[in-house]
Amino acid sequence: MTEKQLLxxxxxxxxxxxxxxxxxxxxxxxxxxxxGAKALALIESERPALVLxxxxxxxxDGWSVCRQVRANPELADTPIIALTAHAMSEDRDxxxxxxxxxxxxxxxxxxxxLEKIARLLER
Length: 123
What we know:
Rossmann fold; CheY-like_superfamily; Response regulator; two-component regulatory system; phosphoprotein; 46% helix
């Protein structure tokens, strides 16, 4: 399997390290952004196959990042999975309304996340 380039946008260092290691073991190469501004720059320059996007980010929040990606015709098809500690149904709805394709709560159920990634990369 060839490595798929993902972008992991996570400001928490422990979450970032754990997820990036697990993604690598699953055969993915994950670029890292610690805030929304860096995420937007990397999405534009690197065109990742998929974005794992924390919603509570410094500089620009995840909802704004998602809306800006969706507003750009060249990037609008980029699959985005929201990552958030907020587990209420309103939070899921808010992420989907912002344009996220799917949603995962923290702590991340990694096997379920891999299924979501696979499904979105297949489309």
